[in-house]
Design brief:
By secondary structure, the protein is mainly alpha-helical. Helix content is about 45%, strand content about 0%. The protein has one domain.
Length: about 50
């Protein structure tokens, strides 16, 4: 997950009078080997009052 894109999307929701309910991360996959930047995403979600 791209942190800057996450922030842009959360800010857009706020501008539209909406709020994200939760942010869901991937701890890792065996198919693609991708892992989200969990600590950065948690901090971003906390800044906006979203659940993890």
């Amino acid at each position: 997950m791209d942190i800057s894109e996450l922030e842009k999307k959360i800010n857009k929701l706020c501008e539209d009078g909406k709020k994200a309910f939760a942010v869901v991360v991937t701890a890792g996959t065996t198919l693609t080997g991708s892992i989200d930047q969990i600590l950065s995403i948690v901090e971003t979600a906390k800044n906006y009052g979203d659940y993890m």
